[in-house]
Amino acid sequence: MTGKTTAYAERLSALLRERGMAPARAEELVAELTAYAAEAGSPLEEEFGPAGELADQLTRREGTDAVDGPGDGPDTWVWTADALQEVELLARFGGQGWEADRLDRLGRFVCRRDRQTPLRWAYRRETTGGRHREQLTARLATEGWELFGTWGPFAYFKRPEAAVTGPAAQLSAPPPRRPGAGSTSRPGSS
Q: N or C, which end of the chain is more exposed by having fewer CB within 10 Å?
């Protein structure tokens, strides 16, 4: 790393911790962003903007309100999680038939599930700056991935598991809900 890259990474890490992100989470996230910028051949600030603005974006959605899953009954569900949990949670909820339609203006995942014929969904998050996003989106589209949202340096893609596994991707029924699980569901939210 160059001195400028190191200084940016250290400043970003410090800002994330100041804004309440756990030190281990901050370090992992900074490492991911640094690796992306190195692969892209761009300085961190050129790729992601000023460290303060990036720290604001990344911590604004800090939260874990999705950990327990949706409560009873919603067909639409809005949730958020921090950048180190969201990939795991997207995989879990995609396996339960939740399709992420989009990210709202606050960076929350807006999801829905078809009660009649629920399908499993696969998700991936890619770290990418705006100038490379179109190329990445076009490349992933050939594999069936569809861009459904962006948040800061992250681009989120989805595809139905049926694209890989065929009919086995269809769930016979949505998984049963745990009693009292999740208080974050918002029926009819969008």
A: C
What stretch of H or E contains 149? strand 146-151
pTM greater than 0.90 (yes/no): no
* 153: helix, strand or coil: coil
pLDDT for the residue numbered 6 = 86
- The two tokens of residue 44 are 């961190």
CB atoms closer than 10 angstroms to residue 91? 14
CB 86 within 8 A of CB 49: no
Residues of the domain holding 143: 76-169
Q: Do 29 and 80 sit in the same domain of this protein?
A: no
Please write down the long-range contacts of 25-29, taking CB distance under 8 Å and 24 or more positions apart: 25/82, 25/83, 25/84, 28/84, 29/58, 29/83, 29/84
Tally of domains within the chain: 2
69 — alpha (psi -120 to 50), left (phi > 0) or beta?
A: left
Q: Which helix (H) or strand (E) is 35 found in, with range?
A: helix 23-40
83 token code pair:
């950048």
* pLDDT 10s digits, 58-107: 776 544 455 556 655 568 888 888 777 889 999 999 998 999 999 988 78
Q: Are residues 54 and 116 in the same domain?
A: no
For CA atoms 36, 47, 19, 5, give the dihedral sign.
Answer: positive
